[in-house]
Specification:
With 153 residues, this protein is α+β, with helices and mostly antiparallel strands. Helix content is 28%, strand content 24%. Strands 3-2-1-5-4 form a 5-stranded mixed beta sheet. Strand 1 and strand 2 form a beta hairpin.
Length: 153
């Protein structure tokens, strides 16, 4: 670059070697990732996961909740990174690939969990009512706990 050209450039321009911008995707919410869990013996196990909000998490189906220790260790990392991770016999995690996601998939895990929780609460309420009915029956007699049981369809 000659002197005349330099004079017309903005003051912040530096003609030294430009920094390379790393466009490699990072692990973010909605990203598909392939990782290798490395144990204390050095053996690895590969997993393919999608990082999702905690309410959509279903690890068995490949959906890793963003608030889990594993996801927190991986968020912001790039492919090729080896991240220390102490869980059971796992010692580190190697990120093999990261595929940015356009949107976080709806897994329905939250609705399933809520249904299971509601069913457990209903069962607990019924058991409490039956215990009360049996206690009343033993103490004062003539109380029918079977009337409390739900009708079967």
């Amino acid at each position: 670059m000659d002197c005349d050209q330099k004079m017309n450039l903005p003051p912040w321009f530096d003609d030294k070697e430009e920094e390379e911008i790393d466009l490699t995707p990072k692990v973010t919410l909605g990203a598909g990732i392939e990782v290798e869990l490395i144990d204390e013996s050095g053996a690895g196990e590969r997993l393919a996961l999608v990082v999702v909000p905690d309410k959509e998490a279903d690890f068995a189906a490949g959906f890793l909740g963003a608030g889990t220790p594993l996801a927190r260790a991986l968020l912001g990392q790039r492919p090729g990174s080896v991240v220390p991770y102490q869980q059971g016999d796992i010692r580190e995690v190697r990120i093999l690939t990261v595929t940015p996601g356009a949107r976080v998939p709806e897994t329905g895990a939250d609705a399933s969990r809520q249904a299971v929780i509601q069913k457990a609460l209903d069962k607990a309420d019924l058991e409490d009512a039956l215990r009360l009915a049996l206690t009343v029956d033993v103490k004062w007699g003539e109380y029918d706990p079977e009337a409390l049981a739900p009708e079967k369809d």
